[in-house]
Design a protein that fits this description.
about 160 residues, two-stranded antiparallel ribbon, alpha+beta
Length: about 160
């Protein structure tokens, strides 16, 4: 009887773990970022598609401007398009090394409801490919940062 409860517990834990992993699969992560926070903020802001729209949580979460893919495969502003994307980049950790979590969400316009002045948008999942592109841009900017090494800020005794 006890062994049966043990097996049911293991199975339940496995299902919950797999469900949690499926939620994480739509984001990209950069681990072990060991640079000053101010430099990391500047790099993340420069790497966002079409610039920064908003930052939250004391500058730890950055939201990009809304964008869509244009006809020439470039990114175009998409504030009022029926389908748009935006990137959310979160800097996790209170000291170095930091973890950078990157997610790109898709939003779809809902028809204008009576009494509302503007259309509203509903989040419809995430986009792994765009998240990978943002991650690559951040990694590229991180690798170029070493040229501007700051002896005072980057010195670590241990």
């Amino acid at each position: 009887m006890g062994f049966r409860f043990f097996l049911v517990g293991i199975l339940g834990f496995s299902l919950v773990s797999c469900a949690g992993l499926s939620q994480i699969s739509s984001n990209e992560v950069i681990r072990g970022v060991d640079i000053p926070r101010s430099d990391l903020n500047r790099i993340v802001e420069a790497s966002l598609p079409l610039g920064r729209r908003l930052s939250q949580d004391q500058g730890r979460v950055f939201l990009s401007n809304y964008f869509a893919v244009g006809e020439g495969r470039g990114l175009i502003p998409a504030d009022n398009l029926p389908e748009r994307f935006f990137a959310e980049v979160a800097i996790v950790g209170d000291r170095r090394p930091y973890l950078v979590d990157i997610r790109v969400y898709k939003e779809v316009r809902r028809p204008q409801a009576s009494g509302l002045a503007r259309d509203s948008y509903q989040r419809r999942g995430s986009n792994k490919e765009f998240a990978q592109l943002v991650r690559q841009r951040i990694e590229m900017n991180l690798s170029q940062r070493r040229e501007g090494f700051n002896l005072i800020d980057d010195f670590r005794a241990f």
